[in-house]
Amino acid sequence: MGERLLAIDTASPACSVALFENGALIAASYAEIGRGHAEKLVPAIAKLPDRGKADKILVNCGPGSFTGVRIGISAAKALALAWGSDIHGYNCLALVAAQALDQLEQPEPICVAMLAGHGQYFVQNYCANGKPAGDFASLTPEQAVQEVRADVIAGSAATELATLAGSKRDISILPNAAHIFLVAEDMKNMFPKPDYGRKPDAKPTKTG
Known about the structure:
By secondary structure, this protein is of the alpha/beta class. 26% of the residues lie in helices and 27% in strands. The strands form two sheets. A five-stranded mixed β-sheet has the order 3-2-1-4-5. The chain has a five-stranded mixed β-sheet with strand order 8-7-6-9-10, with helices on both faces. The chain is globular, with a radius of gyration of 17 Å.
């Protein structure tokens, strides 16, 4: 058996896992579930060959759902500890950009727009080579329109933002762990900690 890599993605309404051996996909699971990642993730990993055991783990660190990001990273850290595996993270928007670029006939700049809750979008522009053209931000739809720097918008908010921006093509997709090798290697070495992209919905109650 060669080197195995397990990719975990729970930062969006989709829950996906994928197992690779020497860079080749050998098994994967993808489901758009909305909520319930905690209940779906471990069984999905357990159904992979050798129950998903891998030498390296990659996990989506966000931005995305607070609960989803936290579940994915917690599971990845627990498995890495149990298996003695290396663990790294990647940016949610980078994977969406890579998936969108893979669908185009010719590479061109991409603007990624993902639903961020509270009526906002996570927005980030990417170059035709898949590299970020700036930092991501959580923006209102009106603000997001001003930040679009490409003719193609991809992500869960792509259709909405393309309609607002006008004269834009949209690719409505969610991140899928099975496509993680579309992302450049230097963009898959994040420290595995949550990057929620915005402040928590609730604040701890002060005591005393």
